[in-house]
Amino acid sequence: xxxxxxxxxxxxxxxxxxxxxxxxxxxxxxxxxxxxxxxxxxxxxxxxxxxxxxxxxxxxxxxxxxxxxxxxxxxxxxxxxxxxxxxxxxxxxxxxxxxxxxxxxxxxxxxxxxxxxxxxxxxxxxxxxxxxxxxxxxxxxxxxxxxxxxxxxxxxxxxxxxxxxxxxxxxxxxxxxxxxxxxxxxxxxxxxxxxxxxxxxxxxxxxxxxxxxxxxxxxxxxxxxxxxxxxxxxxxxxxxx
Length: 241
Description:
single chain; 241 residues; mainly alpha; two-stranded antiparallel sheet; rod-shaped
């Protein structure tokens, strides 16, 4: 049948020529559309393979921009007439490919997370008669755990191109790794809290009444000479710290 729905008579050459032209035009349009879809499919494949080698810890901006490109391409296809129902299987396919790439980098990141977090500047200061961390240890711990959480919840916020729930399932599947991560974190804070102990003897004089101490222990000139020598020795040792 022709474009108008009427049967084409084989002895009507003019109508037959129009019909052949219509078929050829439709075939060419279908070929062009198929070529564009294949090109888009190949672009998705290349982008997904690239994400497989994109560090999720250090290159999150590249992950974000790539996902935006995926979504932009899907919106463009819908604007060309592809319905949500027609695109659902295709989107599902690419969500599963993205899942594989994300899971690979997520697991890799979990293994290095404690060692790869941003450096925190921490000072040991003498204040109010005692050694203290600046910022306080509680504040350091809170900031550290915020950085941990920022990475751990990535699958929950990833979204993909169609089925966001698919990626959320990644977190409970990786839960066994979280125990090791938090154990390492607490070990780190234990070491940090102990780090101030070797310096306490250097500030002991700042936490006592020097006048009372001198009256109690410095009775003879030899006592003063001995302690002056000790101060000089300790001073030289302090310069080496």
